[in-house]
Amino acid sequence: MKTRILITGLAFVSAISFGQKKEIKKAEKAIKSNEYSEALNYLNEAEPMLGSADNEMKAQFYAARGQALLGSGSNDFSKQKRAAEAFGEALKLDPNMQTQLAEPLQNLRASLINGAVKDQNAGEYKMATDKLYTSYLVSNDPSDLYFAASNAVNGKDYASALKYYQMLLDTGYTGETEEFVATRKETGEVEAFDNENLRNIAVKSGEFIKPEERVTESRKGEILRNMTLIYLEEGDTEKATALMKAAREENPDDIFLMRADADMSYKMGDVARYNELMNKIVASDPENPEIYFNLGVGSGEIGKNDKAIEYYEKALELKPDYEAALINIAVLKLAAEDKLVEEMNSLGNSRADNQRYDALKEERKQIYRDVLPYLNKALELNPNNPEVVRTMMNIYGQLADDAKYKEMKAKLEALEKQG
Where are the domains of the chain? Predict the structure, then answer.
C-alpha cells in the first residue's frame, strides 16, 4: 500500500510539472504572435504551481512574464518596472538566459530611456529618475545610474541623488569613455562618432579630416561637487567639508573639483578662498574657452550672474561661435527683468508711480535690445533652435516690432511642423 501511495504521489508531481510547462509553452507561443494579454493569462494559470518547479522552469516562467509585460505595455512604466523585475528574477535563477533575453532587455532599456528623456524635457524629474534607475537595474550600465542621479538633483530628491552618487563612487565609476572623433572640413568643428568604423567612413568620404581618439572628461569631479553642494544645501557642512577635502587630496588638479571647492567656499562665506580658487582655475588653461564657460555655469548656479556673464564673454572672445555661451548670456540678462516686472506690478496710479512705471518699462525694453544681438548670433549658428526663435518672437512682440514678430512666428510654426 505504501508503494502505491508513493507512486501515485510521484505521478501527481509529474502532472503538475507537465501542467506548468504546458502553460508556459502556450504563453511563449502567444508572445510570438504578439498576443500578450493571452500570454499573461496562461502565466497566471501556471503561477500557483510554480513552487514545485525547478529553477530552469521558473526562469522560463519569469522570462516569458517579462516579455509579455513589455509587449503589453511598452509605454506603461508600471508594466516596464514589473518586466524588469521578472527579467531580473529569470537571470538570477538561470544566468545562461542572458543571451536569450538580450533583445527584450535591450528593447526594455531603450523604452525606459526614451520615456525618461521625455519626462526630463517635461520637467517630470521624479518619473525620469525612476525610469533611469530601472534601466540601470536592467542594463547594469552605470551611465543610467549617473543620469538617474542627475534627474534626482533636478527634482530636489537629494536622498536618492546621494544614494545613486555613492553607488557610482563605490563602483569606481568615472564616466570616461574612448571617443572616435574627426574634424568637419567645412566648419572646423570636431565631431564624435559612435564607433571607429563610422568615423573612418566619414573621413574616407572627404567631409572629415584629422581622425583621432580621445578620452571624454571624467564625471567624478562633477559627482563629488554635486554631493558636496547637496550636503551644503541640507546644512551638513561637516560632511561637505570632509568629502571635498578627501576628493581634492585624491585629485588636486581636477578643475571640476576645484570649482566645487570654490562654490562651497562661497556658500560658506569664505570669499577669499573662493577668489583664490577661481584664479587658479583660470590660470590652469587661460586660453581654453571651455574653462570660462564652466566658470560661467558655476557662477550662475550660486547667483553671481554678473560674474557669470563676464566668464561667458571671455569664452566668446576665445571662441566667437560658442552657441551655448551666447544663449546663456541671453538667459542671464533676461533674468534681470523679473525684478523690474515685480516692481512695475507693485506700483499705484499716482503721478510719481506712473513716471516710475514708464522708466522701468524703458529699462525692460533696453534689456531686450541688449539681448537680441546674442540671440541673433545664436540663430545664425543654429537656425533650427525653436527656443531661440520663440524667445526672439516674444521679445519683438514686447518691442512692438510687428514685422520681426511675424517673421519669427512663421519660422517657429515651420520648425514645430518639422519636429
Answer: 8-100, 178-215, 337-418
Tens digit of pLDDT for each residue in 29-87?
A: 888 888 888 888 888 887 777 766 788 888 888 888 989 898 887 688 999 999 999 99
Question: Could you tell me how far CA 114 lies from the centroid of its own chain?
Answer: 11
Model confidence over 97-120: pLDDT tens digits?
Answer: 888 889 999 999 999 999 999 999
Distance CA 97, CA 99 (A): 6
Nearest to 109 by CA among 140, 64, 149: 140
Q: Which residue has the cell 564607433?
A: 195
Regarding beta strands 178-184 and 208-215, do their DSSP bridges make them parallel or antiparallel, or are they unpaired?
Answer: antiparallel
Whole-angstrom distance, CA of residue 345 vs CA of residue 360: 11
Alpha helices in 212-322 (DSSP H): 220-233, 237-250, 255-267, 271-284, 289-301, 305-318
Which distant-in-sequence residues (6+ apart) come within 8 Å of 145 by Cβ?
Answer: 132, 133, 136, 164, 167, 168, 173
Residue 347: phi, psi to the nearest 5? -75, 150
pTM above 0.85, yes or no: no
Inter-CA distances, 242 with 18, 77, 166, 264, 367, Å: 61, 39, 15, 12, 43
The answer to whether the CB of 255 falls within 8 A of the CB of 217 is no
φ, ψ of residue 319 in degrees (nearest 5): -145, 85
Fold that domain 337-418 belongs to in CATH = 1.25.40
Between CA 244 and CA 291 the distance in angstroms is 20
* pLDDT one-digit tens code per residue, 17-34: 445 677 788 878 888 888
Over the Cα atoms of the chain, what is R_g? 29
Distance CA 63, CA 237 (A): 47
Angle between helices 323-335 and 305-318 (to 10 degrees): 160
Report the distance separating Cα 98 and Cα 88, nearest Å.
10
DSSP class of residue 217 equals: P
Stretch 364-377: mean pLDDT, rounded? 94
Whether 337-418 and 8-100 are alike in CATH topology: the answer is: yes
Q: In which residue are the cell numbers 586660453 written?
A: 287
- The CATH number of the domain covering residues in 8-100: 1.25.40
Q: How far apart are CA 67 and CA 294, in angstroms?
A: 44
